[in-house]
Write a structure and sequence with these properties.
Length: 302
């Protein structure tokens, strides 16, 4: 298939759908844990990881791989690792001590389906499994494995997701400004998304200019993705979202609509989408699916 044909959204959509189907079996395989016990913990891990979802992060991994000349099978470990990290973060975000949510992806959150202690341990175990997956699957490329482990650790640590969540818990609508809010989301949501896009470049041993371009794209779509999440928390359909809406307002959390309104939020998301697309002009590879994902991430309804 030529590049011009791939630029048609329908073709990119079909490619992503094929990748999603492939990924589900790959993730299930990673969660086929050999030890029979503790079964309750293993069931909680699978419950939260194999419950569907958009799989945006692994799709970004595959799409960035396409842009640097790598096939999906070369990126299985990374795609699974980032989704395992994402699943762990959702379990912990939903806990009573955090966002105290009772529904995720259309069904009871992990701590309600099992119990709070099991949910905490399931999140811990999923995070550990993510790093084990990278180390095991890339053992023949130790320099690449070490760099990827470091990138992922930064993305989910105090300088990434965990730090962003802490800042989010401390912030309030009346005290936060838009610059502070963007910083929170660049850590809480954007750091892992940025890693999804940069990691294939590391595997491909891309030069610094390409890695910077991938980084810029990842930063833009990561923040745009979160802005759309904020918008959907106000106007989304719970049936599509698989969770309740207006949760941020109930917790007095700063959001883009709360600070700059719905129209301002949509405009900012479009600007970030356009900035992401502009960054892709610096890449010589097939960026059509990355471009399609950049648009989807700010136009989705779930």
């Amino acid at each position: 298939m030529d590049k011009q044909a791939l630029n048609r959204p329908t073709d990119a959509s079909a490619i992503v759908a094929n990748w999603q189907q492939r990924f589900e079996s790959e993730l299930a395989s990673q969660l086929s844990l050999s030890a029979p016990e503790p079964d309750r913990l293993h069931q909680a891990m699978k419950y939260s990881s194999l419950s569907g979802g958009k799989r945006i992060r692994p799709m970004l991994v595959y799409a960035a791989g396409l842009a640097v000349g790598l096939q999906p099978e070369k990126l299985t470990a990374i795609a699974c690792s980032v989704e395992l990290i994402h699943a762990y973060s959702l379990i912990h975000d939903d806990l009573p001590a955090m966002d105290d949510d009772d529904m995720r992806r259309g069904r009871a959150t992990c701590h309600l389906e099992f119990d709070e202690a099991t949910a905490i341990l399931a999140g811990d175990a999923l995070q550990a499994l993510a790093f084990q997956t990278l180390a095991d699957e890339l053992a023949d490329q130790p320099d690449v494995a070490i760099r990827l482990v470091s990138e992922l650790a930064v993305a989910c640590g105090s300088g990434g997701m965990a730090g962003g969540q802490m800042l989010d818990l401390l912030a309030g609508v009346k005290t936060a400004n838009i610059k502070q809010l963007e910083h929170i989301h660049e850590l809480k949501t954007g750091a892992l998304i940025r890693t999804c896009v940069v990691a294939p470049g590391i595997v491909a041993r891309s030069n610094d200019a390409i890695l910077r371009t991938l980084d810029q794209f990842g930063r833009c779509v990561g923040l745009g993705f979160q802005i759309q999440d904020d918008i959907l928390d106000v106007i989304g359909d719970p049936a599509n979202l698989g969770k309740s809406i207006n949760a941020d307002a109930e917790h007095n959390k700063p959001t883009f609509p709360a600070l700059i309104g719905l129209d301002g939020s949509r405009a900012r998301a479009r600007q970030l989408r356009d900035d992401a697309l502009a960054a892709l002009n610096e890449l010589d590879g097939d960026t059509s699916v990355l471009a399609w994902l950049a648009d989807y991430m700010i136009s989705r309804d779930r």
